[in-house]
C-alpha cells in the first residue's frame, strides 16, 4: 500500500499493522472473562487482548450477552493453570492450604478458649457433641483461612494473580438455578440412604450429628451466626478450594483423555476429596455424591457462582432439618 506524503515529495510505503494476538492462549483481556477467550472459531481461536478491545465494551457499541464456556474449553484456551507442572503446584498449594487451615483452626480455638477462660478445657470442648458457638466459629474461620490461602497462593505464584479470573469466581442471574440443584441434591442423598438406613444403629441420630454439632451449643443470636456461617461462609470458601483450586488442577492434569474420561475423572476425584475432607464416615457417600454434582456444574459453567448457590441451598435445607425442630421445641410447639 502506498501513500502520498505531499505535492512534489517522494511516496513512502506504509506497512499495514496487525494486532498482536495470544496464539490461542487466554490472557485475561479487557473484561477478564475466560468465556470470551474462546469464540465461534473454536478453542484455538485468539482471544481479545488489551490492544484489541472487546467491541461489546466499546463506547456506543451495543452490549452483547456472554455465554458460559466449559472449564475444558477455558483450559484449552490457556486459562490457569496453564500446564501440568503448574497444575501439580496448585495441588501442592491445596495440600498446604488444607494443612495450614487445620493448624490455624487449632490456634484460633486456643485463643478463643483463653479469652473465654476455658483454655484448660479445650481438649474436652473439642470432643463435645454440641460445642459452644465460639469454638465452632473459631475452627471454621481457621479452616476457611487455609482454603483461601491455597487459592491466593495458586493464583499469585502459578496464575495471573487475578484470583477471581483464575478460580472462576463469577456470578450471573442464571445461578439461581443452583437453588433447585441444591434441594434436589438433598433429596437424592436421602434416597441413596434408604437401603442403608435399616442396617445402621441409631441412623437418624448419627446422620444428623454433624449439623447438631454446629447448632446444638448455640442459643439466641448464636443461631444466626451459625446460619450465616453455614449458608454463606462454608459454600463460598469450600467452593473456592474444592472447585476453584482442586477441580481446575485435576482438569488440567487429566486433560481431554478419552474425550470425556479426563473431565469425568477430574470431577470424580475432586468430589470424593470433598467428601473425605469432612471426616464423617456415615456421611461420606452423600457428601461425595453431592461433591461430584457440584463439580459437574462448575465444569459445565466454567464458574463457581451456580455451584456456590447450590451448595448454600443444600446446607440451608440440612440446617433447617435440625434448627427448625429445635426452635419449635424451645417454644413448646412440639
Main beta sheet? 2 strands, antiparallel
Secondary-structure element string: EEHHHHHHHHHHHH
What is the CA-CA span between the terminal residues? 87 Å
Relative strand content: under 5%
Count every helix, treating DSSP H or I runs of 4 or more residues as helices.
Answer: 12
Radius of gyration: 25 Å
Q: Report the strand count.
A: 2
Summarize model confidence as the mean pLDDT: 82
Low-confidence stretches: 1-12, 14-32, 34-65
Q: Largest sheet, order of strands side by side?
A: 1-2
Which class do the helix and strand fractions yield?
mainly alpha
**Inertia-based shape:** globular
Q: What is the total number of structural domains?
A: 1
The percent range for helix content is 55-70%
Outline of this structure?
The protein is an all-alpha fold. It is 59% helix and 2% strand. The longest helix is centred in the last third of the chain and has 34 residues, at 221-254.
Characterise the protein shown here:
The protein has helices spanning 71-76, 84-115, 122-126, 133-158, 163-167, 178-192, 203-207, 209-215, 221-254, 261-277, 284-301, 305-330; strands at 2-4, 11-13. With 334 residues, it is an all-alpha fold. β1 and β2 form a beta hairpin. α2 (84-115) runs antiparallel to α9, α6 (178-192) crosses α12 (305-330) and α9 runs antiparallel to α10. The protein is globular and about 55 Å long.
Task: Please give the structural blueprint.
Layout: E1 2-4, E2 11-13, H1 71-76, H2 84-115, H3 122-126, H4 133-158, H5 163-167, H6 178-192, H7 203-207, H8 209-215, H9 221-254, H10 261-277, H11 284-301, H12 305-330
Antiparallel strand pairs: 1-2
Helix pairs in contact: 2-4, 2-9, 4-9, 6-11, 6-12, 9-10, 9-12, 10-11, 11-12
